[in-house]
Every structure is written in C-alpha cells, then in structure tokens.
C-alpha cells in the first residue's frame, strides 16, 4: 500500500508540474553538451555559450536588429572582462566585479551607450 501511495503522489506531482509548465510564458528552447549551450527563443533569437577554462564565448543572432554578434568574457578572480562585436559594426567592452552576493557591472559601446547596474542573488538586477 505504501508504494501505491508513493506512486500516486508522484504521478499527481508530475501532472501538476506539467500543467504549471504549460502556463509558463514562452521560454527559449535549449540543448546542451559538456561545454556548449545553444538556445533559440520563440521570437527566433538564437545564442550559444561555449566555455573553455575561465573563458566564455557567446555567439548569437538578434532578430529585431537582424544582426549577428559575438562576445568573449574572461574571468580573473572576482573580475570578468568582456568584449563584443556585432555584424553592423557596433563594438562593446565592459566588466563585472563580484563583491559577496552582489555583482557590479559596467559597459560602454561604440553606439554611444554606457551604463552601470548592480545585481544581487536575492533581489536580482
């Protein structure tokens, strides 16, 4: 009887989880291997993330701007530096610095935008 109850509860929880999954807004569909993550969202935007040691290689396609882009990030202790280039010629640079559970981010681009924002594991960005 105990096993039947466990199986019933497990089946019920799976049904609830599947129902909840159906209510989640459209999320990106991703596939993953040991070092590579590749995703496509419902709008057609696509990106991939490849890790080699402490270096992260990002590649993507942005539907709205109809442009391809690439970004490389390198981590040195609590600092991560990144540089990127898009197919329309825009380039950007920036860094992220971890301080406890907070990340301080700065960036600037050749398109004239720059900024600073802070993210926390508790409150988000």
TrEMBL record:
Keyword annotations: Signal
Signal peptide: 1-22
Protein name (Swiss-Prot/TrEMBL): Glutamine synthetase
Organism: Pseudomonas frederiksbergensis
Species lineage: Bacteria, Pseudomonadati, Pseudomonadota, Gammaproteobacteria, Pseudomonadales
